[in-house]
User: What shape does this take?
Amino acid sequence: MRFKVVLNILGIILKYIGVMMLIPALVGYYYSRQDPAQFPSVMVFTYSFLVTTSVGLVLQYTNRSSGEFRNRESFCIVA
Assistant: This one.
């Protein structure tokens, strides 16, 4: 099994999950302007966005591969 392919795909998935964390951060920011007690939720999603996206970028760019993945790699990704 080629682990570089698996880590590359997992990096791409983590990158997209991190970007999707911006949506609740923006909603929390909108409501924190009206209620300052909501501000910690904004920071939690912002830190999660930064960590998840950073790990995804590192995995994607350090494990670039020029091959297609086979069934074995596909099963490893979804397992």
